[in-house]
Amino acid sequence: MPFEHDYGVSELCADCIAEPPRHSGVFAAVAYGNVARTLALRLKYGGRIAFAETVARQMARLVPAGADLLVPVPLHRWRMWSRGFNQAALIANALAKATQVEADPMLLRRTRATPMLRGLGVKGRARAVRGAFAVEAPERVAGRAVVLVDDIYTTGATTDACADALLSAGAASVAILCWARVIDSDGT
Fold first, then answer.
1. Where are the alpha helices (DSSP H) in the chain?
2. Domain tally for the chain?
C-alpha cells in the first residue's frame, strides 16, 4: 500500500514488512479514479485498442532499469476468444516499441478459467487465481529481470500468482507494471 508521504523506493509498508511480497515492486502510471477507470474499461470492454498505446506511453517512464523482458498477464483462452484480444498484451507490445525491451505475450499462460474477481475480496481473489498460471518456456525467463504488465492493480492477487509462476520458472526478479493502481484496495 502506498505511503501518505514519499519515503523513497526502498521503504516498505506495514503489510509488506509483515508478509514480504515475492515481486520486486509495483509501479503504476496513475492512481485508479474516474478517468483511469473509464479509459481501462473502454480498452478492455469497448474495443478501443488504440488506448493501449496511450497508457503504454505513460507507463514507459516506469519500466525498471535493467528490465530484460515484458510479460503481460494472460487471459484464459475462453475469455480471449470472447473479447478478441488481451489488453495487457496490447499494452506490453506498445511498451516494447516505446522502450526497446522485448515483450513475450505467449510466455505466461492461464491454465484454467478463473471467475471474475470483482467483488471477491482479498482472500477470495487470491484463492481464485492460486496456481492458475504456468510458464510455457522456462528457459526464456531463467535469470532474467521480468516486468509483468497489467492494466489495473487492485489487490495484487493476480500479479502475485503470475510472479510466483515466473519466479518458480527461474526469473531473477519480477516487477509489476500497471496503468492504474487502486489505492483503497479493499478488493471490491
1. 14-18, 34-44, 51-59, 77-83, 87-99, 121-129, 138-141, 157-168
2. 1
